[in-house]
Amino acid sequence: MKLTNRSSILSLLVLLLALTFSLPLSAQQPGKKLPDLKLASKLMGRDMSYRVVLPPDYNSSVDGPVNKGGSRYPVIYLLHGLTGNFANWTDKTKLTEYALNHRFIIVTPDGGNGWYTDSVSVPNDKYESYIIKELIPEIDKTYRTISTRDGRVIAGLSMGGYGSLKFGLKYPEMFTLIGSFSGALGATSWTEKTAGATGRSMDAVFGTDEAGETRKSNDIFKMVRELTPEKVKSLPYVYQSCGTEDFLIQNNRDFLKLLNDAKVPHEYREHPGVHDWVFWDAQVREFLDLADRRIKR
Prior knowledge:
This protein is an alpha/beta fold. 39% of the residues lie in helices and 16% in strands. Helix 1 crosses helix 6.
C-alpha cells in the first residue's frame, strides 16, 4: 500500500495503537491462570516471556513407545500486535476455552514493539532471530511437538499478522499454515515522515532510509511480487482476514490482489468488524478450526 497522506496515516496509526491495546472481552477463562514462562535468550540478551496452552489430553495421551511416552502435537504460534505482549491472546480472548476443542500446543511469544524483525538500531532487539532460532527450538525440545513443517503453524493480529506472513514467506520450510487477522501488512512503508511518533518506532526497527536494505528485505509485498511459480509451490497455505470497517482494509485488499496474481494458495475473509478484540476473538476461533482441517496428522 502506497502511503501518501500524512494526516490520514497519523490518524490510522493512532487507532492501531489504541485499539490493539483496548480492553479484553469479558469472558471467563476455564481453569487456572496460565503461568508466565521465560526463555533466557542469548540473542535478545534478556529473559523473554511466553505462555503455552497445552491440549486437554496432553498429560494423559500415550500412544505407545514410538512416541516416547506420549502423543505428539502440532504447534500454533500466535503473535500479538503493537503495544501488546505475550499475555494478550490468553487474557483478551477465549483462546483457552476454544483450545479445549482441539489438540494443539499453542504458544504466545513476546514481540515487544519490534515488528518481529531484527532491529537495525537496537543490537539486542532481534525478534525475528529469537523466534526462529531460539523459541521454536526450545518449544520443540521442551514439549512433545510434531517438530516438522507439517506440524507447525503461525498466525497473528495487526503487527503480528505482518510478522506471521513474513515468517511464512521467508521460512516456508518451517510452516505449513500462516495466518493474518487485520494485518498491518504495509509496515515497512511507514516512517516518521508519514506516521509521526509511531513512525519513529518503525524507523528504529527498519531504518530511516525508505529504500534501505532492511526495509526491502522485510517488505512482504515485495516478497510476493518476486515469487516464481516454483517458489509458490513451497509456500505454506495462507489465511488472511480483515474487518470491513477496519482502517487497514485497503492494505489487506492490496495484498490479496498480489496473492491472487501470484496464484498463492490462500483463503481470504472479510467480515463486518473493526480493529479490535471482538474481531480477533472470532478470528482465532475460526483459525483453530481451519488448522484442524489443514494439518496432516
